[in-house]
């Protein structure tokens, strides 16, 4: 299998978008600010997130903003990656289902395959923002999923200080995701990343 044939002088953020609230605004609220902050952004979307984004015309806009294809499907054997090497990955927004699968190492689509491999490799930093509600957090295994991810070095953007949880469909109208906190965590993860040598 071939590696990437794309080079960039900027650090590259591998943005992994799942089908959770906030995905529909990720270009304006996160991708553009990341680019303005000096990042190159390469995107992989889950199949459902890709459908949402495509129906809104956002796949085309994201590709125009980043200059890279939004990946959904795996590459063919021997096919080069359309993305440059990644310096930090961010799973944003991460659905409760995605968080559980990441903790368990279940890789049943391109996004999860990418994330599970990187988490297992423990070389490239991974940031995860769980876009969940209070009911998700009461699921009996939820805390164990978070512990498992933290144990392998995943940077979680999670807690009442950044994203107070509400009951399902009870969040205040217009409640925005903690985009600045997510981008700051990405920046911090990059600055404090392990030395590859």
TrEMBL record:
| InterPro entries reported for this sequence | Flavin_trans-like, Flavoprotein
Q: Where is the Flavoprotein domain?
A: 13-138
Supply the Pfam families for this chain: Flavoprotein
Q: Which GO terms describe its molecular function?
A: FMN binding; phosphopantothenoylcysteine decarboxylase activity
What does UniProt give as GO cellular component?
phosphopantothenoylcysteine decarboxylase complex
Q: Which GO terms describe its biological process?
A: coenzyme A biosynthetic process
- Report the protein name in the record: Flavoprotein
Q: Which organism is it from?
A: Allosaccharopolyspora coralli
């Amino acid at each position: 299998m071939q590696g990437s044939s794309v080079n960039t002088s900027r650090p590259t953020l591998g943005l992994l978008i799942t089908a959770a609230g906030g995905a529909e605004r990720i270009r304006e609220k996160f991708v553009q600010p990341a680019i303005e902050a000096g990042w190159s952004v390469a995107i992989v979307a889950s199949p459902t997130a890709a459908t949402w984004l495509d129906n809104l015309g956002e796949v085309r806009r994201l590709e125009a903003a980043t200059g890279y294809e939004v990946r959904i499907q795996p590459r063919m054997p021997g096919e080069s990656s359309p993305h440059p090497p990644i310096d930090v990955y961010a799973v944003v927004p991460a659905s409760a289902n995605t968080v559980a699968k990441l903790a368990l190492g279940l890789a049943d689509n391109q996004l999860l395959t990418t994330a599970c491999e990187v988490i297992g490799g423990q070389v490239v930093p991974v940031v995860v923002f769980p876009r969940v509600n209070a009911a998700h957090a009461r699921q009996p295994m939820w805390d164990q999923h978070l512990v498992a991810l933290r144990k392998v070095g995943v940077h979680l953007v999670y807690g009442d200080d950044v994203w107070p949880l509400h009951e399902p469909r009870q969040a205040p109208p217009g409640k925005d995701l903690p985009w600045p906190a997510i981008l700051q965590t990405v920046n911090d993860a990059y600055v404090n990343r392990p030395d590859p040598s």
